[in-house]
Here is the input.
Amino acid sequence: MKTARVFRLSMAHPGDLSELENLITSGTVAASDVVAIIGKTEGNGGVNDFTRGYFTQTLMALLSKHLNKPAAQLIHEIPCVLSGGTEGVMSPHYSVFCIGEADASTRQYPSALAIGTAFSAPVAAEDVGRRAHVESVTAAVREAIANAGIEKLDDVHFVQVKCPCVTVARAAAAIAAGKTPLTNDPNKSMAFARAAGAFGVALALGEIKPGDFKESSLLSDFTIQSPRASISSGVEVESNEVIVLGNSPAWAGPLRISHRQMSDALDICGIVDVLADLDIPARPQVTAADADRIACVLVKCEPDRRGKIRSNRHTMLDDTDINAQRHIRGAVAGLVAGVVGDGRIFVSGGAEHQGPDGGGLIAVIASQARGNA
Amino acid sequence: MKTARVFRLSMAHPGDLSELENLITSGTVAASDVVAIIGKTEGNGGVNDFTRGYFTQTLMALLSKHLNKPAAQLIHEIPCVLSGGTEGVMSPHYSVFCIGEADASTRQYPSALAIGTAFSAPVAAEDVGRRAHVESVTAAVREAIANAGIEKLDDVHFVQVKCPCVTVARAAAAIAAGKTPLTNDPNKSMAFARAAGAFGVALALGEIKPGDFKESSLLSDFTIQSPRASISSGVEVESNEVIVLGNSPAWAGPLRISHRQMSDALDICGIVDVLADLDIPARPQVTAADADRIACVLVKCEPDRRGKIRSNRHTMLDDTDINAQRHIRGAVAGLVAGVVGDGRIFVSGGAEHQGPDGGGLIAVIASQARGNA
Amino acid sequence: MKTARVFRLSMAHPGDLSELENLITSGTVAASDVVAIIGKTEGNGGVNDFTRGYFTQTLMALLSKHLNKPAAQLIHEIPCVLSGGTEGVMSPHYSVFCIGEADASTRQYPSALAIGTAFSAPVAAEDVGRRAHVESVTAAVREAIANAGIEKLDDVHFVQVKCPCVTVARAAAAIAAGKTPLTNDPNKSMAFARAAGAFGVALALGEIKPGDFKESSLLSDFTIQSPRASISSGVEVESNEVIVLGNSPAWAGPLRISHRQMSDALDICGIVDVLADLDIPARPQVTAADADRIACVLVKCEPDRRGKIRSNRHTMLDDTDINAQRHIRGAVAGLVAGVVGDGRIFVSGGAEHQGPDGGGLIAVIASQARGNA
Amino acid sequence: MKTARVFRLSMAHPGDLSELENLITSGTVAASDVVAIIGKTEGNGGVNDFTRGYFTQTLMALLSKHLNKPAAQLIHEIPCVLSGGTEGVMSPHYSVFCIGEADASTRQYPSALAIGTAFSAPVAAEDVGRRAHVESVTAAVREAIANAGIEKLDDVHFVQVKCPCVTVARAAAAIAAGKTPLTNDPNKSMAFARAAGAFGVALALGEIKPGDFKESSLLSDFTIQSPRASISSGVEVESNEVIVLGNSPAWAGPLRISHRQMSDALDICGIVDVLADLDIPARPQVTAADADRIACVLVKCEPDRRGKIRSNRHTMLDDTDINAQRHIRGAVAGLVAGVVGDGRIFVSGGAEHQGPDGGGLIAVIASQARGNA
Here is the structure.
């Protein structure tokens, strides 16, 4: 039966894949085991963040060398989801998701981490942030769930989607071709793309139905949320790339995933609760021994668009110097890293419709405690 | 006997003192009770942060109107210590420290919050960050301790000093006058000024002796620390402004202060411990009822200059887009605000020599629990 | 007959009005002569730029002291138009526009600089950027033209309007009151407010008629332009503040104004031409003697929203680190300052509908050459 | 005899070398002709600007494919000097310097553009910005001049050096190894590295002698300048990479180079003069026909460290939001681009010792006018 492994690796700069290369060279990982990457690079996380493209180019060149497949092909087979911006205490790192075979007789736990991936067709510039985009995401998420072999939608805990957006150049090209992009403001486009991704995940997970929303609901009706969606958007992709993470009795291995909603940017309870789900106490910090059991921490967050957090004014949305997403990532990462005692966490902004306004979600993958066997 | 009151007030912008005006107009506070202000304004916290000057001008005009004293005089009588930068979840606010008289017969607790203030003479541009600056701070801190009526140095928990620094213009003027400023880089000057402040506090509190350091120890020998010093630096002051906060049996009232070191930027234990000192549990978050007892949270922090936090690389010091102090303030504020459930916290960067490298300190003022009476 | 004087003064920081104070104290200027201020302060020029409020508060306190009128009244009588952002070679400064009386018998030139000002009623948050906003501007501009005594609309060369915008807080308040602001994104609101200002000026100058545009034309139909409008927007004003500058035979004095369109950000010809209009050659730089004749340089500019300048891609609109308006101000100021040899120039971004896309306008006030008398 | 060609190519993003690929694929350029690259990428130009590494990786992979040499070898053979930061009107682009053979009988001009390159050995972290670094640069520049076949030092017009600097990580590693880097502040290190480069060029060109300076003269004695040095510094190189450009009778072809000092950031005369040297008038802008003759524009500039430009205060050095180098690049590029009518110009900050304080240099390569033959 299948078994998932997750390696959390550090990088010295966005083009540094030496830790993965070492794992491959030493035989710990076969290049063909690698099915997905989720990472944080030290860019600004905005339209002009090229650290993601740099990392991806380097990764694909590395895998290409070991797999004897062209990088241009791999880029459409292995989702590489990077979130730029390691504000504050975050440490640049990437998690490598691998699938291997395990002997069913050795399984220790009734269910284990399951992984599935999928790619949609390219999304046209004029479709970004529109219903066609939503539907494109939904189809890809369903394919990834099937690919993971997860039968119950409740067993899905985290759906990462990387959506394309428009740049000024792409918008201009579309306009020149007689098309009408939703916006030619790249930051706005990224927001609409993330909304489309969240709606697409919600549809795929049965949390909403096609008739529950209109195109205009995107970025306006924030009661529509998917508490398991984690959407990024960036200039470097043209199709939706999907990674589904859940638990399944069809998979073996010690890893398990859980998720919780974060109700706002101060919701330390959500963090402590998701750790408790995995039998990891935080009083107030996870012990070093338990921290070693944690394989991956995935967080989405968002500056509250009402301008206040628990009735106190925040200044993130009115700041012309620092982008609001950089503000919120730095703050929430400070909180999560303080609880888990480790800065190698994936905290991504832009959580529109991926939890309550001003909040988001946290998912953690950890080895199951021995006593659970 | 004397009693201290602390009002934590919000502002809509750096020139908005309406909440204090309301307190004065309504008679809750007499303008003459106000002895010090500590606040966070929404600037960048750097040399070109004019939100501090704007707030100060507005404050002094307000008090001038009510006290019938010129603003130009008040500015040398009432320390107004502002830290720019409300990154992430921080909310712009200011704490007004007031001293009143209480009938000794009504006292509830054996000791209570005590406040003392002092101003040094102006510091010349060429002295900033040098031994003369250190000594100037020491003398002012001693004066403020005496002024607070605190007899035991152990009862001092927090010494806030606002130190002058050089700007490019001030440095140029000094050079034109034949003087040699330590640096003409304003950000560097602010760092040296903060170091001088910390050394000055350490001397005043007896933590170090004059022979324990050389001028070159500033910003180089980080074993020299004062765990109770909180130093700011800014272009808007020319002399050292000192606020001493401690507990004293000579004071009445429900308030009490405690402090703890933060060993690094992930040290949630230091936060939980200082709250426990004041009988405020955080499991994991302070309850709303206990949060109401908290009058003021004061934090200093610093990006670890070794480039790592608990062996993982951070990117704060190499970032040309966002100043390192803005990074660390946002991260540490995210952690502290998550524990106390409130973004109205004073988190100030630039903690050189004010705790271990990469760490800092946290002090909390809270009403004593009823059972303590 | 009336005569206009313009003093271009430097400041050490946004609260430094000492040069104006010196002029008043020395008797060069009577406080009652001051009718308007246009200046550049060293903020970021965005929603959270409080240098403008700081300067304004200081200015009004100064004038209040000398005029014995409350600052709160003066702020509705004397337009103080500040543009934040002294990127690159720009030097923080402010131009003080004064009106005095001249003996008609001494006049040297057939016409001279004329100044008029006006204030509209406050603009509601939900009206910002809408037709009601346009009409409010138009009425105020007409009042200012009348106020200047300019009879021919062709003699109007520069109409400065400072328009209110929404902040996150104002938008939230309006929504809570059941109103629908055009946007709750403050930067977007500032852009719509500038568009409304430009349409209002175009209407007042007869460049367009009310039926020539729809509300949706704002920020979408860029063929609608007023080549004499200079619009700023900021959080610190609630009504439209208007300053009209032109030439009039009813005014005496040596000063004269001219303006030219800048067709794009590289249009050095527009700069040289407007100087030539005033008999000031630039080959390639204005001589020091001629530079002394220049009293004020006023420029509006805008990053080309098509993403290219003369077929080469620019990166201003895709930059998450530096706001696009800061980029363009720095570049255009570099060009204008290089021609005039002086960094004390007013270069303001946000030139939507105030010239061609990617371009803007330049107006210069200078003393007329002796030979012209 | 040898002939130089220069191709100025645009890029859609830092990993886009498609225009060069097209030239190679179409046979216009042989990969083996390429001897150097100088370009502007759209990063921040600071320590954490990874657009340079991304471009370089892409370039070397492209050349590797066509030359059948490993990229790791090419990187030590072909200097790739990139300056991050396309502030304002600058357009991301790169100039490809190629050397070919020309039949001596067809030569049109008595001398023509000559190119030489060289690489030094790696510079240790503790040597960066010290005399050893200076000497390493000098040796490499001499090698490049010889390599170009330029016999008279007066014929050298532009010496580009890319110097290594320390990052926080490199500095920490050096310290751990018992070494003492000059600074562990990466931005400071970049400045010292640029100073060492300028001193090295001045020595190589005979402008100064070894006894003319002390190690402490770097970044302190600004009377020491090389008006032909253009130094960059970045994290992505470990040795000094040198490109020498000059004119030589030993070379054929239409191209010619000239250079001028820029005395300050407003020195439009320097720009017009260097164009005049090449028979290109700018009245005030270069005509489209003449603009086509321009192959490359190379500029160095620097914010005046005395805080003023022609007696007016600038704010570049006191800005915590935008790095001073980004400010000055945007301003000077605005001026130069306005004169040449083209944003594809190389404007690089950090001109310490590469011209007068606050100024810099400009070099232009252009085809010689027909009449010159």
